[in-house]
From TrEMBL:
<dbReference type="InterPro" id="IPR003785">
    <property type="entry name" value="Creatininase/forma_Hydrolase"/>
</dbReference>
<keyword id="KW-0378">Hydrolase</keyword>
<dbReference type="GO" id="GO:0046872">
    <property type="term" value="F:metal ion binding"/>
</dbReference>
<dbReference type="GO" id="GO:0016811">
    <property type="term" value="F:hydrolase activity, acting on carbon-nitrogen (but not peptide) bonds, in linear amides"/>
</dbReference>
<dbReference type="GO" id="GO:0009231">
    <property type="term" value="P:riboflavin biosynthetic process"/>
</dbReference>
<dbReference type="Pfam" id="PF02633">
    <property type="entry name" value="Creatininase"/>
</dbReference>
<keyword id="KW-0479">Metal-binding</keyword>
<dbReference type="InterPro" id="IPR024087">
    <property type="entry name" value="Creatininase-like_sf"/>
</dbReference>
<protein>
    <recommendedName>
        <fullName>Creatininase family protein</fullName>
    </recommendedName>
</protein>
<comment type="similarity">
    <text>Belongs to the creatininase superfamily.</text>
</comment>
<keyword id="KW-0862">Zinc</keyword>
Amino acid sequence: MKKQTEFKLDKRDSVWFQDNTAAVNCAYAKEVCDIAILPIGAIEQHGPHCPCGSDSFNAMGIAEAVARKSGAMILACPMYGSHPAHHWGMPGTIPLTFETHVGLLTDIVRGAANAGFNKFLIISAHGQTMSMFEAVHKLGIEGYFTIGSTWYDFLRDNKKTLDTFMWHADEAETSVALSLYPDKVHMDLAVPGKAHGLIDSKWKIAPGQAAGEGMLYHFEGTFSLMEKDDLDTGVIGDPTNASKEKGDKIVERCADLYCELLEEVKTKYPCGVNPLGFRNPLGYNGTNNIQYDAMHDEHGNLKK
C-alpha cells in the first residue's frame, strides 16, 4: 500500500483524529505518541450572550492547546453531554441520560484504542462528573488507562485570575469564550444572573474553588431548584466582568498543567506501553482472569 509521505505537522496532518486518514492515525499512535485526548462538553444554554455549544467549544479549545504542545492526538468532541438533575427541561439544553453518556465515552475510548492509542485524557468543560467517573472506572476494568478531568477543577484558579468563583455563563466561562471563540460571543447582551440554592453556599465547593472544611462538591446533592423555573437570564454569576485577557491566562495555565501531567505519563510509559498492562474485553466478568502483557510482571508492575 502506498503511504502518505507529506504532512502539515510532524507525522500527521492535524492534531484532530478526524482530519487524518486511518493509516496516519495508526502510524502516529505506534511511532510518535499514543496519548489521545477526548474533549467533552454539552449543548446547554449559556445565557443571552454565549452559544449553546460553549462547554464543548471550551473543551475543544483547551484540548487543542494541550495537543499542540504535548503531541497528543485529539478525538472528535461528541458535543452532547450528561446533565445534573436541575438542568433538565431548560430550553436550549439537550441532555443525555447518564447511561447514554457512559456508553458514549466508553465506546469512543475502545474505538480509539483499536487504532493503537494506549493512554487517554478526558477534558470536560461541563459538570458531568457523575457519568465521566463511572466511564473511567468501567474502562479501567477493561484495561484502558484513562484520566477523567474537568478543566476548572483541574486548574483550581481559586480567584487567582478571576474576581469571582465560577458558576455558569459567568465571568469564568465567558472569559474563556472570549479567548477561544470571540466571534460567537455577544457581550452587549451579557447580564448578571442569580440562582436560589437550597442550602447556604458556604457548604458547597464552587467549580474551581479550593475546598475547605465541611464543604460538599456542588453535585453531591440535589441542592438547586430546577433551572427552568429558577433562572431568569440563564446565567449564574456576572459575565460583565469577563475579559479576553482573563480567558487567555486561564487557557494557557490550564494547558501548561495538562502538558506537565502528560509529559510525566510519556516519560514513565513510552509510546506503545499500556500502563495497566492488560485488556479485559469481558469487563466485570473477566477480572479474575486478568493476564498481563510481556512488559509487565505478574503483579501488573512495569518491568525495568
